[in-house]
Amino acid sequence: MRFDDLRKLATGSVLFNLGRIISPRLVTILYLLGLAAIGLWAINHFFSSFRFGFGNGLWGLLEIAVFGLLAFVALRIVCEAVIVFFRANSVEAETYEPEHMGASLIDDVREAIEDLADQEPDPVEPAAPAPVAPTPPAPATPVAEEPAIMPEEEAPKPAAKRRATRAKPAPKA
């Protein structure tokens, strides 16, 4: 696989297009990667167990035989289960056709949000109260006018209050 192929895979519509089912093809790749991982573990364990002596190395060979076989069987069962699942649902996968292909991922997300909004129930609006007959407006009452404010120069000044003085008794003659 060249760099151009990886670039096309990463930027193209293969990964982001849900109209095409690619998972069954990936099971084979995952199985091969699992076998490689089991093989690398076995080699590493072989050399690390013999590092501590011949007896530990023989015990490591037994561990490789037992745990390696268990890992191989578990990997095989998981991969076969995934393949059986995809074969059982192959009819649905073949008949699946998206409504339409969006121009971009943003369009697909926008349409998905709109679909979710359409599925939500509309909020129940409270019933409006029965209309009440309008009451005739009350007759207009005249508003008393405010007195005009005079400028300070022209405004009359309040008269100074006189003190009440006691009348002096008249001199007696």
Please, could you describe this protein's structure?
Helix content is 54%, strand content 0%. It has 173 residues and is mostly helical. The chain has a domain at 21-98. It is elongated and about 155 Å long. The protein starts with a helix and ends in a 54-residue tail after the last helix. The chain crosses the membrane at residues 26-44, 64-86.
Descriptors for this entry?
173 residues; mainly alpha; 0% strand; DUF4282; transmembrane helix
> Roughly what fraction of the amino acids lie in strands?
under 5%
- Alpha-carbon Rg, integer: 49 Å
Average pLDDT value?
Answer: 76
Number of helices: 5
Q: Could you state the order of secondary-structure elements as H and E?
A: HHHHH
**Share of helix among residues?**
40-55%
Assembly annotation:
single chain
Q: For the report, how would you describe the main beta sheet?
A: none
Number of strands: 0
Global outline: elongated
Instruction: Decide which structural class fits the backbone.
Output: mainly alpha
* N-to-C CA distance: 148 Å
> Which spans have pLDDT < 50 for at least 5 consecutive residues?
none
Biased composition (Low complexity): 141-150
Region (Disordered): 117-173
InterPro entries: DUF4282
Transmembrane segments: 26-44, 64-86
